[in-house]
Specification:
Helix content is 28%, strand content 27%. It is α/β, with parallel strands linked by helices and 233 residues long. α5 crosses α7. The longest helix has 11 residues.
């Protein structure tokens, strides 16, 4: 099985997700591009956002996704994240009903309580996907949906680039990055009981090259993917 170490072209010092995001929080909002995840959410046709009364934001971070969901008419949103510093930023943003410090694979949220669960740009930090898909399945009601936006494995392999940030000392720091193929997502999700109803992949296009001119060599390579899973009644 391939791992990120087989492709790592940067050799940055690597830290765990909680440590990394705890440091990155001060510059995170100015670093992560909406083209990575929000642009994919906006392309989805299957989720009827305004019909979801309660949503679980698994790996809510600073509240970017929660704020977008609220703007699309989603009702009450409960956020879960492993990093206290990120939760503090999300709390200041005010998009969530409540915020919980917990692992996305063991949230402590109520069973079958949510019409929708969302996870964005989290899965590459998980060693395995099965626990995440099982937990999302547990908390979503029958008939509900799970939307997951992922850092595309192809781009990780082609670029050799982990999720990373520059710390206060100017050092480039990598956050633990794991390689999950599209087939890994499908296998884990189907194994948890989900049915795939929609999927999109975002390519490096003119917008991306404008944002990151040095990425012109990756034009038309996929950089992120969005999956919409349904929990059948």
């Amino acid at each position: 099985m391939a791992s990120f170490t087989d492709f790592d072209a940067r050799g940055y010092r690597m830290v765990d997700a909680r440590t990394g995001y705890g440091e990155w929080v001060t510059t995170y909002e100015g670093t992560v591009e909406d083209a990575m995840d929000i642009a994919l959410l906006e392309r989805l046709k299957t989720p009827l956002w305004g019909t979801f009364r309660e949503a679980a934001d698994l790996g809510c971070g600073t509240g970017r996704t929660g704020e977008w969901l609220r703007g699309r008419g989603v009702g009450a949103i409960d956020g879960v994240d492993l990093t206290p510093e990120m939760l503090e930023r999300a709390r200041a943003r005010g998009a969530h009903r409540r915020l919980i410090e917990a692992d996305v694979a063991a949230t402590g949220l109520e069973t079958a309580a949510y019409d929708l669960a969302v996870t964005s740009l989290v899965d590459e930090h998980l060693a395995t996907l099965d626990p995440l898909y099982r937990e999302a399945f547990r908390v979503v009601k029958p008939g509900g949906q799970y939307v997951l936006v992922a850092f595309h494995p192809h781009f990780i392999m082609a670029s050799g680039m982990p999720t990373h940030f520059k710390n206060a000392a100017g050092e480039e720091i990598a956050i633990a990055t794991h390689l999950h193929l599209v087939s890994d997502h499908v296998t884990s999700a189907l194994g948890a009981g989900w049915t795939l109803v929609e999927m999109h992949e975002r390519l490096i296009d003119d917008e991306w090259v404008t944002l990151k001119p040095r990425w012109a060599k990756y034009r038309n390579h996929p950089i992120s993917a969005a999956y919409v899973w349904q929990k059948q009644v």
